[in-house]
Amino acid sequence: MKIFLDTANVDQIREINDWGILQGVTTNPSLVSKEGRCMRDCLEEIATILRGPISAEAMSMDTEGMVREARELAGIAENINVKIPMTAQGLAAVSRLSKEGIKTNVTLVFSTNQALLAAAAGATFVSPFVGRLDDIGNSGMAVVEETVDVFDTYSIKTQVIAASLRHPMHVTEAARAGAHIATIPYDVIVKMIRHPLTDLGIQRFLEDYEKIKDL
Ligand code: E4P
């Protein structure tokens, strides 16, 4: 499972990229607005940091507008793919963009049927939102698992991004469900490193080394 970072914060992207584990970034309008920057500036800077896929969201609600915006966004850097919302207009846009070779990430997916339609339209990625489904008492991970299973059955090439992940267990569960990618918030990825026994182990090794280092 590939590790993407779900953020528009360039410091966070630089830091995690330095770990050598980062394979992509997803942004959305809420994440960019937290940075108080314009979308284009933000994307241009992210593209200087990372070679892997970067998702940028089209904001039009009509097909023509989505296609126009997608061409502009994809023109910023060759690794930018365009997030298109899961609507009828969005499907039509994805279908047109896939014929032009523009990569898409169908976003706000909450069911396997929506994922199937996105794949049929030619989406490069689909993003089931796990945490938002959990929030309303449904199992978000069940959608990831079922979608991966159905895509495998029909050898569908569209990649499943487990999105809206809220804690480290979500990441483990996404991997067990066979998600191709997990897009993970910064605070969650930082938590994934930590284990109290690792900290304790380091402390003990350092203390014991102090006793022998001058021998
Ligand atoms: C994914 O592409 C979205 O940007 C993100 O995962 C949404 O997460 P949220 O439900 O925590 O806002």
Automatic annotation (TrEMBL):
Its EC number is 2.2.1.2. It catalyses: D-sedoheptulose 7-phosphate + D-glyceraldehyde 3-phosphate = D-erythrose 4-phosphate + beta-D-fructose 6-phosphate. The keyword Hydrolase does not apply. Keywords: Cytoplasm, Pentose shunt, Schiff base, Transferase. It is found in: Cytoplasm. Its main location: cytoplasm. The active site is at residue 83. GO terms for molecular function: aldehyde-lyase activity; transaldolase activity. Pfam families: TAL_FSA (PF00923). GO terms for biological process: carbohydrate metabolic process; pentose-phosphate shunt. GO terms for cellular component: cytoplasm. It comes from the Bacteria. The keyword Cytoplasm applies. Pathway: Carbohydrate degradation; pentose phosphate pathway; D-glyceraldehyde 3-phosphate and beta-D-fructose 6-phosphate from D-ribose 5-phosphate and D-xylulose 5-phosphate (non-oxidative stage): step 2/3. Coiled coil: none annotated. Belongs to the transaldolase family. Type 3B subfamily. PANTHER family: TRANSALDOLASE. Transaldolase is important for the balance of metabolites in the pentose-phosphate pathway. This is Probable transaldolase.
